[in-house]
Specification:
Length: about 130
């Protein structure tokens, strides 16, 4: 069992990028990034592996243009039913419930630069998010 305390921390183990296809902004992504619906977004899905090589979480990120350094972020915790591709990657059943951490990174003026969904299997994670100090 792992504990997530910082939704913005670098993953310390190996990972594999599984998808980099651009995507149109859905209504939700447009709101999170402050763009219009249908805008073309850069996209990346990364499968993060634990030290034993087992899938620990999936991180799907979306952004406009080139990635830029951020100065702050927000993280919101919820749950989601896994789609077929997510369930397969995590070794779980389709429609199984997983934690979903929605992380949005901001520039120094508070504008969103990037948003991500961190999908964490409930049987492998405890979530203990702490406020920034």
């Amino acid at each position: 069992m792992r504990t997530l305390t910082d939704a913005d921390a670098e993953w310390p183990y190996s990972s594999e990028t599984t998808d980099t296809r651009p995507r149109p902004a859905t209504v939700e992504l447009a709101e999170r990034l402050g763009v219009h619906e249908g805008a073309t977004l850069r996209h990346e899905t990364v499968e993060c592996l634990d030290p034993g090589g087992r899938s620990a979480m999936l991180v799907s990120s979306w952004w406009r243009g080139q990635r830029q350094p951020h100065v702050s972020y927000t993280a919101e915790l919820g749950c989601v039913e896994l789609a077929e591709e997510q369930a397969h990657a995590l070794g779980l059943l389709v429609d199984a419930t997983a934690f979903r951490v929605v992380r949005t990174r901001f520039d120094h003026e508070g504008r969103p630069l990037e948003t991500a969904d961190l999908i964490l299997p409930m049987d492998r994670w405890l979530i203990r998010l702490t406020p920034a100090r």
